[in-house]
Specification:
The complex is a heterodimer of chains A (147) and B (389). With 147 residues, chain A is mainly beta. Chain A has helices at 4-10, 21-27; strands at residues 33-37, 43-44, 59-63, 68-76, 91-98, 105-110, 123-131, 134-141. Chain B starts with 11 loop residues before the first strand and ends with a strand. Chain B is built from twelve helices and 14 strands.
Chain lengths: 147, 389
């Protein structure tokens, strides 16, 4: 397992802490973990040390399917320019409502689609890209609409 | 839980407010220099010296410690540096004064163009953030300011809003700023100018976003009783609130029907003896045009999704600006979009000057009440109902 020291070194520039480290550690294996309460089953994001619904401290970073529906979609014409981002085409950032729970959302970029295909309501699934030596979550349009 | 209790009703007052004015470019000055300029101006204008101040409140730059040192204020018994928007400073001062921690608060807000607001700030080496390395999350987030663009996309999706609906906020603000010597952007714009403006974060363009400025505002806040002995008519804080819900993160905020703005409106409405029909001048926050449309709708000036149409229906063709019911101006100082991005201090300062009949060419005819709904949707919604005695 990647140690905390290695984790912080690899995710330079990210705000890592005791509550989100497992989420980031799993990204290295292309797994998206979201906190779920082992007591009441409620999901929440970003990671908190307690379940906001029932106050159980038994929150478990749990893999999600990565499937969901586009809830918000924007296209950046300028901004931070990490390797691979040049804004020659406006850069999509989408907030996806995950299938696991109403209101549980995850924000990432989108790949493999033109910007005018990235409409609110479209079905998407999780994929990954590489940036600065770490995997970055990204969504692709699902093959079957409404799947 | 939203309490209807309002023991501070009309008990705390703004005695005065002052501004340095704002410019939309880098000056060769520090944030502290703007804060102290505004503070000296408001203290001199109120006839107060360093020994008359016993409380200090502003955001973190400069800190209360630095400001107190720069102004040579010999001793204070209370200070705080909460984050903006500026309703946080007002609420903190109200609590401190009413609790007896201090009597006369000097509240300040310095604006300094930073890389957070504009990349061009980086031309000044003293504005560059300390090195770190790594890309971090880069642009793959809607945290902070980007969140408003994301919710604008949702607003358009849910209500079929047009760009013109947003544009009316920008055009009206700019028309108002023409009459404000303190404003950074005073050249009028047309709807065509708005529609042709450079896209920054689609669906929002340059003119949907407040203008980064250098400058400062300062305020004297004290008891209504003490303010009576000062040179200007006290502006009474009739009701005040901050509003935040549990899921206030930009992408987890439940909906356009459930966010901090709704808490603010419910609290203000239950604590205030007057409401929108009795408001003489209205200050819906406009750091982004989408915020303004939502405040107008959530406060009940019109129905959900009708904000843009409402502005069109209440358009003053002669002034090329919004005049609600032909009477109530909206952000007469030009707002964050045209006076400058002050995170609410400009809106509150203008409300005070309007109610004190000191707003120059922008003066509303004999206003008695003002409503300020400051901040956005997330961790920063807040409101003030203001009146004169």
């Amino acid at each position: 397992m990647v140690t905390d020291e290695e984790l912080v070194t690899r995710f330079r520039g990210y705000q890592l802490d005791h509550d989100n480290r497992e989420h980031y550690r799993a990204r290295l294996d292309h797994v998206l973990l979201v906190n779920r309460c082992a007591a009441c089953g409620t999901w929440h994001h970003p990671p908190r040390p307690i379940c906001p619904a029932c106050w159980s401290t038994d929150v478990v970073p749990t893999p999600v399917t990565g499937r969901g529906t586009v809830f918000m979609a924007i296209f950046l014409y300028q901004g931070p320019a990490p390797p691979g981002v040049d804004y020659a085409t406006p850069y999509p950032v989408i907030t996806v409502e995950l299938d696991e729970q109403v209101g549980l959302r995850f924000t990432a970029t989108a790949i493999g689609a033109s910007n005018d295909q990235l409409q609110i309501g479209e079905r998407v699934e999780l994929d990954w890209l590489e940036r600065d030596g770490v995997p970055v979550p990204a969504f692709r349009l699902s093959d079957r609409a409404g799947a | 839980m939203i309490s209807e209790r309002n023991p501070l009703k009309d008990k705390i007052a703004f005695a005065n407010a002052a501004t340095t004015g704002f410019v939309p470019h880098n000056t060769d000055r520090s944030a502290t220099s703007f804060a102290v300029e505004a503070c000296v101006k408001v203290m001199r204008d109120t006839g107060l010296g360093p020994r008359d101040i016993d409380g200090i409140c502003g955001p973190s730059t400069p800190s209360a410690q630095v400001l107190q040192h720069a102004l040579g204020i010999p001793e204070i018994t209370w200070f705080a540096n909460p984050p903006v928007p500026f309703g946080n400073q007002v609420a903190a001062a109200m609590g401190a004064i009413s609790a007896g921690l201090c009597d006369v608060v000097l509240a300040y807000h310095a604006l300094h163009r930073s890389a957070f607001f504009t990349a061009s700030a980086l031309r000044d080496p003293f504005r560059r953030p300390p090195g770190g390395g790594g890309s971090g999350p880069g642009p793959d987030t809607i945290a902070m300011a980007v969140g408003y663009t994301a919710w604008a996309s949702r607003y358009i999706h849910e209500y079929g809003a047009k760009r013109e609906d947003f544009g009316r906020v920008a055009v009206s603000d700019r028309s108002n700023a023409a009459d404000n010597p303190a404003a950074a952007m005073r050249e009028p714009i047309t709807m065509d100018d708005y529609l042709q403006a450079r896209m920054i974060r689609e669906p929002l363009c340059l003119l949907d976003m407040d203008v980064p400025v250098d400058g400062g505002d300062a305020f004297i806040i004290t008891t209504a009783e003490r303010a009576q002995d000062m040179p200007y008519e006290p502006v009474l804080i009739h009701a005040a609130t901050l509003g935040q819900i549990d899921k206030s993160m930009e992408d987890q905020t439940p909906s356009l029907l459930r966010n901090g703005q709704h808490v603010v409106i419910e609290a203000l409405r239950s604590r205030s003896d007057f409401w929108i029909d009795d408001v003489d001048v209205y200050f819906p926050y406009d750091g982004f045009t989408i915020i303004t449309l939502n405040w107008i709708e959530n406060a009940g000036w019109c129905g959900r999704g009708e904000g843009g149409a409402f502005l069109g229906d209440h358009w003053d063709s002669e002034g090329n600006r919004v005049l609600i019911k032909g009477r109530v101006p909206m952000n007469p100082h030009g707002g964050a979009l045209s006076e400058g991005g002050t995170q609410g201090s400009g809106h509150i300062r203008e409300a005070i000057h309007q109610l004190q009949h000191r707003a120059g060419a922008r003066q509303v005819a004999d206003p008695k009440t003002a409503m300020v709904t400051a901040g956005g949707f997330f961790f920063n919604s807040q409101g003030l109902m203001l009146r004169t005695a």
